[in-house]
Amino acid sequence: MTEASPELILCSTARLARGLRLAHSRAQRLAGLTQWQPLRALTLTQWLEELTQRAILSGSAPPKDVPHLTLNGMAERLLWEQVIDRTTSSQQLFDVSGMAQSAMEANALMQAWGVRFPDDLHTDETRQFLRWRAAFRALCQQYDALEETRMLELQIALVQHIPLPPTIYFAGFDRISPQEQRLFDVLAQRSDLQRWELGLKTPALAVQVAFDEAEAECRAAVHWVQDKLKIDPAARLAIVVPELANLRPTLQAMLDDVLHPECMHPAHAEMPRIYDFSLGQSLAETPIISTALALLRLACNHRITQQGTGALLRDVYWSAGISEADARARLDAAMRRKLPATITLDQLLRQVRRAQMKGFAVARLVQHLEALHQKPLNIRQSASAWVSAFTQVLDAAHWPGERTLSSFEHQAAKAWDETLQTFAKLDALLGKMSSSDALRQLSKLTRERIFQPESTHEPQIQIMGMLEAASEPLDALWVMGMNDHVWPPPARPNPILPAEVQRKTGTPNSCSQVQTEFASTIHQRLLRSAREVVFSWARRDGERELRVSPLLKDIPDAGEQFALAQTLAEQLAQPETMQWLQDHQAPAVQEGEKVRGGAALFQAQAVCPAWGYYQFRLGARELQEPVDGLDSMARGNLLHAVLQAFWNGHDSAYLTGMDETVQRQAIQQAVEDGLKQFSQKLDEPLPVHFASLEKLRLMALLNGWLALERERSPFTVKDVERRVEQEIKGISVEFTLDRVDELPDGELVVIDYKTGSQITHNSWAEDRITEPQLPIYAALVLVEGEVAAVCFAKVRAGEHQFVGIANDDGTLPGVKGLEQARKLFDAEKFPAWHDLLQHWRDSLEAIADEIKAGDAAVRFKDEDELAYCEVKPLLRLPERKLQMERGGDK
């Protein structure tokens, strides 16, 4: 590029225009210049907007001839939605937004590509569309507005009366519509119109290579970039991906791991990279804007998920997100245990106030939530008025937070302000609406706006989609995803217009021939975009076999194996670069140290010692997943409360002496008492309708269970929900015995209620007892009485049964005596009942010795037994497997 700058370059994309300007500036610096005129590279839309304003100011176009409003995509779709709503009586059967999008595309094709079809090709759908189109144009006339394609017709006319540069270049247009061609023809009549050559004069020597799957392609492309930079640190490279939106996360993670591993540290998350993606992300997905939308949903008193509430509480972009971060995180953990899956602002505010009273340092959070709660949003008003109201809401919530924004965050906030301004201009189209409707439309705007923060430097490596053109030839180019189902792209004709007419007109996406011609044009451009080009494709997608794109039929195979890049974790997991430390031994339990967990501690230690140590000694636990209503644990606790209310102070005679009516009344009273006791522990009362359903469920469940209890021999309920503190081998632990019955001869039956479907006592005969709760009670807690039976009470609709073992057969319905259960309890190992109890005592005391000694090894018999382990990520099982695969297990 020379010092003399072309007067105007019309570009197909804003990214190409920016790339040309950067390349021009670089060329001027290399030429030794310190000052120069910036290159005038604009998109076609930008230039035409400038031209229209110049025509109005110069008088070439009277203001009355120019519409008041040019409809952007959002505004045009709103008009189409209004038309469809008004003209379709059964719109509830349609996806109105999707139908409006299809109608909008059909209208643009008719205008830009001259699609016309005779009456004999009219179907019910096309006739309906033509009625919509007439109504749409009437609305446009009412609002003095034009959609972009009709505005372009007006601008084509204006071009003929406005002074133009002597020479105009156009760059990057892979496909030109007939409407755009008319514009270029007019420009050619009044200026010297030339194509700006972007690539090399001759095609590059290209090769193709196949990989097993798309992830391997990504790894190979990133390793290829790494190798190229080692050879030439100043090399200008690009990776082109047809399905960039799908593969962007994988590529970005690999590029960071290989080229910028320091970005793993949060402080460096936004540091400049040497690569850049052409595809931005939805503005709504950027963290700072996502927070703003979540706050607005909360202020509008929408029910939001607890996950969403938790994310808000941990968010730094509002209130005192930094100074109160610890208290807010602990509040999130507490709320997951106490509140339903979806909550409102009222419920959240009550919970936060209670937390403050309990000592949580959340004073500013309370202040900002109260300010949010006081904003009246239950009115109908215009879009511009809602912009003002929403801005006040965010100010009340102290958005965007305490700290100074980074460059990326500042750009996102600026894009948010621009989106609000766009929304405020839709008063005429939207009219007065509720807060929910306003927020829905604003959310749609932010989802549709693509945000790409501008870097402060020119990226050395570009990650582009197929439609992006490089501003100047590259040193090397890798094009991935060259499978036949992806490239050429499949035909997707507009569903409203006749497919035959679209094929004859050659509209975009109309048929395979059009797509093949379009893909071939881009293929030729790619071959001239760099001195070296590599095409790659994947052989499989999961179990599906894939084929290569037909466009690669003349490209020779690379004939070499490309290395695959490693993730940062894989790089750090190399045995020769690691320091090995044995971490299976934790500090021993000190004298007087209280170890919490009860029977669950012994169960975890028996399954995997590391589980027991992390969860019960270190206190690690997973954040609970809140649910609407009650989860399985809460339902179990409620059943315990009901059974406690029924049996407390009673015996079998109390049950057998009832007739059907009395039993129903007793069950109803127990359910009422149990539900009352259970509800007293809740922060939020159960909804009335839900409590009613629970009562019916519990009455039916209890009635079915008592039918089994009636089959038992006489007994007295000695203890229900009895709390016991027991010392086992010097470790003080607490237990809760669900129920202990006493038989007429004074022997005891230990019962533990279960509501799950999978209940087993198979481990009771093994050296490590992984279901230790009942053996603990029988062998270590109830030493003052003779235990005759130990069993689970499976209280489950349609599956009521006792599961366990007894000294003698017939002690409990369905429970075998020891002599009848020799298949599980071997006679040689357990010749008598007391031998089984002694086995339990020895096994459990051995586990207690492990706990006391600090055994915290990741050691287990079956990984399936870790299904309910809350600290499973801390066990680092994938890392252990990787080390074993690489021979690093020591």
Summary, kept brief:
It is built from 31 helices and 23 strands. It has about 900 residues and is of the alpha/beta class. The strands form seven sheets. It has a six-stranded parallel sheet, with helices on one face.
First-to-last CA distance: 61 Å
- Shape annotation: elongated
Q: What is the helix fraction of residues, given as a range?
A: 40-55%
Radius of gyration: 36 Å
Instruction: Summarize the biggest pleated sheet.
Output: 6 strands, parallel
Describe the structure.
It is a single chain. 45% of the residues lie in helices and 12% in strands. It has a six-stranded parallel β-sheet with strand order 7-16-15-8-14-9, with helices on one face. Strands 19-20-21-22-23 form a five-stranded mixed β-sheet, with helices on both faces. A four-stranded parallel β-sheet has the order 2-1-5-6, sandwiched between helices. The mean pLDDT is 89. The protein has 31 helices and 23 strands. It is of the alpha/beta class.
